[in-house]
Design goal:
This protein is an alpha+beta fold and 355 residues long. 20% of the residues lie in helices and 30% in strands. It is built from seven helices and 18 strands. The chain has an eight-stranded mixed beta sheet with strand order 11-12-13-14-15-16-17-18, covered by helices on one side. A seven-stranded antiparallel beta sheet has the order 9-5-4-3-2-1-10. A three-stranded antiparallel beta sheet has the order 7-6-8, with no helix packed on it. A hairpin with a 3-residue loop joins strand 12 and strand 13. The longest helix has 19 residues, at 246-264. It is elongated and about 90 Å long.
Length: 355
């Protein structure tokens, strides 16, 4: 752009390209040695980063086109009262420019002209006008009256005080719910909403925390909106059906899980095999030889490999669905997941397939 930035300003920006500090509240106060006034600075504008219209260099480009501003003037900071701090790169002087309202208008090509796109008001009554007649906006800013506040950028920085306020981050938890059957339904970070009631099924070694609804949406974002009371009634009915029919459901789980084993794992475990997942159920031999075949021939024998570790949580979903994750001794990498729909075992697959 043909602009030479003073060395003291360049040194500052090479060190600190703006004032935003993650997790901190930064207050900047400039005391002018010329006017004797204090100016609270909202933020320093960055170079390059932040979108063209929100940077020093981008602002210069827009101002040259839209207001025919002299190229020696760079807006580098904005005060809390929305006035601008501007450096004249030819003299090094620092000015505070008040803002003033400008006219917005359409070009012959139908393009709307404005100075600072960060200030336009989309809710203005006349924002969507298609007429080429000029109109005014109370939300547009323009460089107005100026006041000399420092004779160099170094002098400006010398009279700048910075206060960093560290506030303890207060975590606001999503609202909880309560029903007589489920008890308190509260938010559990990363897992969604859990109920006070647990699900106990001895045959599955289950004394499980019950989660209701999904933990994440389709975009991978945590769901923090609590379930409605109507949804909780639906989840309650699904959980009641499960707990009232555990004998039948466990029988179905045993049969389907055994078939799942026969289809996906028997070819490996029903002959001599290398132990891939050492645990209490399948231990490698001391002499490093292959493990003997497991000889699993019944659903009950296979169930032992599903219940060697306790099942510590289940998830109740819409459409009468319950998901039970199993810590599977024969495949600790992929695990096992049971999907129950309307009181019947719908399918069995790898963990994570159904949620």
């Amino acid at each position: 752009m043909g602009i030479v930035i003073p060395d003291d300003m360049k040194a500052f920006y090479l060190c600190l390209n703006g004032t935003g500090v993650l997790g901190l509240d930064v207050e900047c106060m400039f005391h002018s040695p010329i006017t004797g006034l204090d100016y609270e600075i909202s933020h320093f504008i960055s170079f390059k980063y932040g979108g063209a219209q929100f940077t020093i260099d981008g602002g210069v480009s827009i101002a040259r086109i839209e207001e025919n501003r002299a190229s020696n003037l760079l807006v580098f900071a904005i005060a809390e009262d929305h006035s601008r701090f501007v450096i004249d790169v030819k003299t090094g002087n620092i000015y505070n420019y008040k803002h003033k309202e400008i006219k917005w208008y359409y070009t012959k090509e139908g393009r709307q002209i404005f100075f600072d796109v960060s200030t336009y008001d989309e809710q203005a009554d006349n924002f969507w006008r298609t007429s080429s007649e000029p109109f005014r906006s109370e939300q547009a800013y323009y460089l107005g009256d100026k006041t000399l506040v420092a004779e160099s950028f170094s002098e400006f920085i010398l009279h700048l005080s910075v206060t960093v306020n560290e506030y303890p981050e207060v975590e606001v938890l999503p609202e909880s719910r309560y029903t007589d059957f489920l008890g308190n339904v509260v938010y559990d970070k990363y897992e969604g909403f859990k109920t006070e009631r647990k699900a106990e099924v001895l045959a599955l070694n289950m004394d499980a925390t019950v989660y209701v609804g999904r933990a994440y949406n389709d975009n991978g974002e945590e769901i923090t909106t609590p379930p409605t009371m109507k949804k909780l009634e639906e989840y309650e009915q699904t959980l009641r059906q499960f707990l009232d029919n555990t004998d039948l459901i466990v029988s179905q789980i045993m049969e389907k899980a055994y078939k799942y084993y026969k289809k996906n794992y028997a070819h490996y475990y029903e002959k001599e095999f290398e132990v891939l997942f050492p645990n209490e159920m399948v231990m490698p031999s001391a002499d490093s030889k292959l493990h003997s075949p497991l000889c699993i021939t019944t659903p009950a024998e296979h169930l032992r490999y599903m219940t060697y570790n306790p099942c510590n949580h289940i998830r109740v979903l819409p459409r009468k669905t319950i998901i039970i994750p199993i810590d599977y001794a024969l495949d600790e990498e992929h695990g096992m997941e049971i999907k129950i729909v309307d009181g019947k075992v719908k399918s069995i697959g790898e963990s994570g397939n159904y949620v």
